[in-house]
Every structure is written in structure tokens, then in C-alpha cells.
UniProtKB/TrEMBL annotation:
SUPFAM superfamilies: FAD-binding/transporter-associated domain-like (SSF56176), FAD-linked oxidases, C-terminal domain (SSF55103). One of its GO terms (biological process) is lactate catabolic process. InterPro entries: FAD-bd_PCMH, FAD-bd_PCMH-like_sf, FAD-bd_PCMH_sub2, FAD-linked_Oxase-like_C, Oxid_FAD_bind_N. Residues 42-216 form the FAD-binding PCMH-type domain. PANTHER family: D-2-HYDROXYGLUTARATE DEHYDROGENASE, D-LACTATE DEHYDROGENASE. It comes from Pacificitalea manganoxidans. It comes from the Bacteria. GO terms for molecular function: D-lactate dehydrogenase (cytochrome) activity; D-lactate dehydrogenase (NAD+) activity; FAD binding. This is FAD-linked oxidase.
């Protein structure tokens, strides 16, 4: 089945279609270049056309038309994903969700919204309506969409209290359109949510989401400085365990991250400072300060509600999660990163071992998370990149030590996850995308169930570089 791009484009020409080469190239890219491995492999990838639906009916029309003409469809929220998630590896159509951004209903504890709504706009609407906000958001809050967060993200600011996006209760309902001769509209709740959440749009297009909300607060941003990494680690873990202190963020940055890469923080820290970034609810500040008093090694150097810095650092969450890597990359383009999960109960010992084994080649950047009632660390370790072989070796040594790696230097769901098929996602793809046209090349088990993960998967349909 050879795609008939011209016929699909012609049939959709009455919709909002981008025609300029520049716009098509820009909308074919995401933040894949964070990875030196993906940068060399995906830089040339480009769609044939970009179309932006205004309604679910237009989504259905686009999918029906592209199905009829065998044209691949890769959905784009805002394109802030890191692994080429929103990049059209086989060309074809990029469906950009920017016009479908309506906040439809807000109720106590939940919101119903279209996928293209920016996280910041959604928070603003919920706050204005009834003093509520999203339980969690990616650090790309200002630019990313709620649909892209659910289809491509994993968690973020808020996960210290609420856990990961995939945890039960963190998504209430998704409305999904299939890629068939006659697309169907399905509603998923409960177990069914796992078919399409974090599936990179490979098996259905989300056209509406129902998400849980929490009370909104004017969070206090805080930096606490430590001379000693282990003291900072113990502090962060202990704070994660303080159930009575309401917090939205606790990030740990091993020295010299803060001094080398956080320009506005640099005058306030030393090269050997390990920094902890925090968001604490205002009514929890007394509890927090009492907790801090029990950790004399920690020195409070910044609080947004009582600031004495000449230049404010801006939102502390924009130093955390993958913004840490972004800040480092701006200063030193040779920096890259890993995504690590340090599970309870060995999380502290494992971080200490990885630090002992890899410092200073790998710098520890940790995010405190909740998982099944326990405190764990998500590591977004920063790596001084030398070669792909060495990067693979660092990954292997982490895995051998018992750390779980979600490899950000791969573009497939499986390699960015647990290196195995997600049967629910695969089964639903068989049903909802029988021609395999949705975001091709991202689900290995669809293309090649025998892939053994001993080497990087190379999607055979990947556009050839010119
Ligand atoms: P896109 O990148 O456009 O899309 C992501 C994936 O979802 C793609 O596979 C796309 O095809 C699919 N998709 C988009 N919309 C739909 C839809 N309607 N239906 C079906 N599939 C769809 N991620 C986190 O989880 N937590 C973080 O804290 C975080 N921090 C980041 C910091 C930086 C600096 C950067 C560059 C990235 C970060 N990310 C993080 C990754 C990314 O920003 C988030 O996951 C973000 O929420 C993705 O939203 P988006 O609108 O940009 O999605």
C-alpha cells in the first residue's frame, strides 16, 4: 500500500492546511535533539503536510481520508516531547491539535477539556472558575498541551504528592477516535485508559479528556543549599515522607549543577553546593520550616514569598524535571541525560552507588515522587556525553545495578519504557489502527515482535536522509 499523499491533501484542502516548507519542517520536529543519538538519526524527518482540525468531526474526516489513501498520521500537541514522539518517521500527515483547545466543563475535583489546551491555560481556567488546578503537570507547563502530556508524558510537578500519570485516578476519562475505514469514537475509563495513555498516539487520537483537579495554591518556591550530597538526599527523602506537609515539587541537584548551569542561582551558591528546589503550599510553610530546622545542614537561600535576590530566579519548577537538562544544554551542548527510576526500598542506596560509580561523568538530578504510598526517586541524571558506546555502557551498568532505565535515546515506546510489549496497547492498535498508519515506527511489537532489544531498533520505514 503506497500512500497517495496528493489525493489526501487535495481531499482535505478545505481544512486548515499548512503549505509552507518552513512551517511543515517546524511542525515535524520536537525536542528529539536533546539526545545526541536521536539528533543524528531523526534530524531529516519531515511530514508531507500539516493539518489542524477544529473539531472532533474534522479529526474523523482527516483520519477517514488518510486511511482511504494509506497516508500515515502523526498527532502533534505542542511538540515538546523528547524522543521524536511527535515526529512523522514515515512522512505523511502531521495532525496538529492547536485549535481543539476548549475547556468544556469544570466541576468540583474534575475538568473536561479538549486535547490542544495548553497546561497553563487549563490551570488558569480552573483557578479562575473555582480555585482549582491540575494535580500534576510537565515542567513544559507554559508550552505543552494536556493531550500531549497524557499521550506522551509520564508525570512531573505534583507527582511528589499524586504519583505518576499512569497511577489509578490521575486520568478519569479519555475520548478516542480510531483510524479505520469508518473511524469510531470510543470512551475509556478505568483499565481501558492504559490502552491509549502514554501510547504516543499510535493507536487512537484523544479528542477529549476528563482530568482530576486539586485545590489551587499560591505555591511558595524555595531553594535550600547543602554542602553535602547525602545530607540533601536524606532531606529530600524525608520531606517526601512528611504526609502532613503539602508539596508540589522536590528536586535535588548534585554539585556543580546549580553553580554551573543555573545562571540566576549561581551568585548564591558555591561550586560544591547541592541544591534542593521546592514548591510548598503556603499553609504548610510552618510545618516545612520546622522540618528544615531538624536538618541543620540545609540552608534556606531563597523563598518566593520573602525574596531578597536582585534578580528573581523565576518559577522553581522551571529548574526541575527536564528543564534541568535544558538549562545545562544551553551552557554546555555536550550534556545529555538518562531517565532512571530508583524504586523503594533501595532508592537511596542505589543513588549513592551510581554516584560513587559514575561521578563526575554522571551528575545526579533527582525528582522525589510518590509510588504506591512510598517515596521514590525519578532520576534525570545528567551525562557528560562522549560516545554512543559509552552512553550504552552507562545504561547497561545502571540496569545491572538494579536501576530501571527509560532510555531517552530511543524513539520507540518499548525502548523508552520497560523494553517489552504493552499488550493492552498492542491489542488496541490491532483493533483501532489495522493498517498501522498512526505514528508509525514507534511501536516495535507492531513492526517486529521478535526484536530482542540487544541493539537499538531501526524502523525500516524511517525516511531516508537525503
Ligand atoms: P507532543 O510532544 O506534541 O506529543 C507527545 C506525544 O503525544 C506524541 O507521540 C504525540 O503524537 C502524542 N499526542 C499528542 N496529542 C495527542 C492526542 N490528542 N491524541 C493522541 N496522541 C497525541 N514530560 C513529563 O512527563 N514531565 C516533565 O516534567 C517534562 N518536562 C519536560 C521539560 C522539557 C524542557 C522538555 C523539552 C520536555 C519535557 N517533558 C516532560 C516532555 C514533554 O514536554 C511533555 O510530555 C509534554 O506534556 C508533552 O506535551 P506536548 O503537547 O508537547 O506533546
Amino acid at each position: 500500500m503506497k500512500p497517495n499523499v496528493a489525493a489526501a491533501k487535495e481531499a482535505l484542502s478545505h481544512l486548515d492546511i499548512e503549505t509552507s516548507d518552513r512551517a511543515i519542517r517546524a511542525k515535524s520536529r520536537d525536542f528529539f535533539w536533546y539526545s545526541p543519538v536521536l539528533k543524528t538519526r531523526l534530524d531529516h524527518v519531515e511530514a508531507d503536510f500539516v493539518v489542524s482540525p477544529r473539531s472532533e468531526a474534522e479529526v474523523i474526516e482527516i483520519l477517514r481520508t488518510c486511511y482511504a489513501h494509506d497516508v500515515p498520521v502523526t498527532t502533534r500537541g505542542a511538540g515538546t516531547g523528547n524522543y521524536g514522539q511527535a515526529m512523522p518517521l514515515a512522512g505523511g500527515c502531521v495532525m496538529h491539535m492547536r485549535h481543539m483547545a476548549a475547556v468544556k466543563e469544570i466541576h468540583p475535583g474534575r475538568v473536561i477539556v479538549e486535547p490542544g489546551c495548553l497546561l497553563k491555560d487549563l490551570d488558569a481556567a480552573c483557578q479562575e472558575h473555582s480555585g482549582q488546578e491540575l494535580r500534576m503537570f510537565s515542567s513544559t507547563w507554559a508550552t505543552a498541551t494536556i493531550g500531549g502530556f497524557v499521550a506522551g508524558g509520564s508525570g512531573g510537578i505534583g507527582s511528589i504528592t499524586w504519583g505518576a500519570l499512569r497511577d489509578l485516578g490521575n486520568i478519569i476519562r479519555l475520548r478516542v477516535v480510531t483510524m479505520e475505514e469508518e473511524p469510531r469514537v470510543l470512551e475509556f475509563r478505568g483499565e481501558e485508559l492504559h490502552r491509549v495513555s502514554h501510547a504516543y498516539g499510535t493507536n487512537g487520537i484523544i479528542t477529549e479528556l476528563e482530568m482530576p483537579l486539586a485545590p489551587a495554591y499560591d505555591w511558595t518556591d524555595i531553594f535550600v543549599a547543602f554542602d553535602d550530597f547525602d545530607a540533601a538526599l536524606e532531606f529530600a527523602n524525608g520531606l517526601g515522607n512528611q504526609d502532613g506537609i503539602l508539596k508540589k515539587l522536590c528536586s535535588v541537584y548534585e554539585a556543580p549543577i546549580a553553580h554551573s548551569y543555573f545562571q540566576r542561582v549561581q551568585p548564591h551558591v558555591a561550586e560544591d553546593t547541592t541544591l534542593v528546589g521546592l514548591m510548598i503550599a503556603p499553609h504548610s510553610m510552618e510545618g516545612f520550616l520546622t522540618f528544615l530546622g531538624r536538618h541543620p545542614a540545609g540552608q534556606l537561600i531563597y523563598r518566593s514569598d520573602d525574596n531578597d535576590w536582585d534578580r528573581t530566579p523565576g518559577p522553581v519548577f522551571e529548574y526541575g524535571w527536564n528543564h534541568t537538562t535544558l538549562r545545562a544544554l544551553r551552557v554546555d551542548p555536550s550534556i545529555t541525560y538518562l531517565q532512571v527510576r530508583y524504586a523503594y526500598p533501595d532508592h537511596i542506596a542505589l543513588v549513592q552507588k551510581m554516584r560513587a560509580d559514575f561521578s563526575p561523568e554522571v551528575m545526579q538530578h533527582l525528582e522525589v515522587m510518590r509510588e504506591s504510598g512510598r517515596t521514590i526517586f525519578a532520576g534525570l541524571s545528567m551525562v557528560r556525553f562522549t560516545t554512543e558506546e559509552r552512553l550504552d555502557e552507562i545504561v547497561r551498568l545502571h540496569e545491572e545495578a538494579g536501576a530501571i532505565i527509560f532510555n531517552p535515546h530511543r524513539y520507540t515506546l518499548e525502548e523508552g519504557g520497560r523494553q517489552s510489549a504493552d499488550q493492552r496497547q498492542l491489542d488496541f492498535k490491532r483493533e483501532a489502527d489495522p493498517k498501522g498508519l498512526l505514528n508509525p515506527g514507534k511501536m516495535i511489537t507492531w513492526d517486529n515482535p521478535d526484536h530482542d532489544y540487544s541493539s537499538m531498533y531501526a524502523y525500516p520505514g524511517l525516511q531516508a536522509a537525503e
